[in-house]
Amino acid sequence: MDRVALVAFPGIRAFDVSVITEVWGADRTGRGAPAFDLRRVATDTTTPIPMRGGLSLLPDRTLTWLSRADLILIPGLDDHVTPAPAPVLDALRRAHARGTTIAALCGGAFTLAQAGLLDHRRAITHWNLVDHLRTLHPHVTVVPDALFIEDDNIWTAAGTAAGIDLCLHLVRRTHGAEAAATIARSMVTAPFRTGTQAQFIEHPTPRADRDADTLAAVREHALRHLHEPLTVGDLAAHAGMSPRSFARHFTAETGTTPLRWLLDQRIAAAQKLLERTDLPMPEVARRAGFGSEVTMRQHFASRLATSPRAYRAAFSTASASAPVSEEAGSNPIAR
């Protein structure tokens, strides 16, 4: 069972506390999700932590529990310059020195920066706070546009919804895509957005709204035909656009390019097939649309820093899974 610590002190955002609690605090073992031990950690357990909106959080463990944690989470802040208590900063430094994974949501990056943990490391925060993080902490390499990133086992995320993306990604990297998808389904949220996706997309115009409807249908079409050798030209033709216009509208709507999106979906499809089935590697590659096992292995190495065989060994649940449809166009991430 993973031991997860939510670090609490005055000024933390109630939304981020709720996201962390929803992902790691709900018992979904009956649906096949992993079991987690989530603890609310603070300098003491007798004083409720006030939050905006009349809410409060009662800690159940002191900072000494961080030495037992597998994962430490820092919520964002209502005021991004809120100073964290010195004992909290000291405890975070010790945790990082032990090799514990630490993740901060939104303005929680400022807390890690106060501790000096982001000095000379890459980090991200809400797009509206990027310049302020650079100014206050000039030794931090602030990435201007991403949903979440990692450097030296320290994760940071952009604002609000990106915190959900990071939390699900942390579950995915530890327990596999199916576990993350189970939690996402329960939360009625998207199970997969890559961290490199742009965090800020301009509000669409009425014309762009119409294009968005068309592109949503194209993405649905692509998901149902991942096994086919789809190209940007094929998707553009399905949308009734030129390839250049299609790529421009697609990137404006989703924050990523058509090719990157397609590759992400194929990797996700292969992950689920590796977890759910004992299909041979060439068949997994075919169904996910990679064409060959070699190509699939190359993309797993570059995106996931592992091989398909190692991924299956770590996350396979095939013995307890229902058979996967033999339909040629069957796509495990569409169900």
Write a structural description.
With 335 residues, the protein is α/β, with parallel strands linked by helices. It is 45% helix and 12% strand. It has 13 helices and eleven strands. It has helices at residues 14-24, 86-98, 108-114, 130-136, 161-175, 177-187, 206-224, 232-239, 243-254, 258-276, 281-288, 293-304, 308-315, and strands at 2-7, 36-42, 49-51, 55-57, 61-62, 71-74, 101-104, 122-123, 141-142, 148-151, 154-157. The strands form three sheets. The protein has a seven-stranded mixed β-sheet with strand order 5-2-1-6-7-11-10, sandwiched between helices. Strand 1 (2-7), helix 1 and strand 2 (36-42) form a beta-alpha-beta unit. Helix 1 (14-24) runs parallel beside helix 5. The longest helix is centred in the middle third of the chain and has 19 residues, at 206-224. The chain is globular. It starts with a strand and ends in a 20-residue tail after the last helix.
Keywords, separated by commas or semicolons:
13 helices; globular; seven-stranded mixed sheet; 335 residues
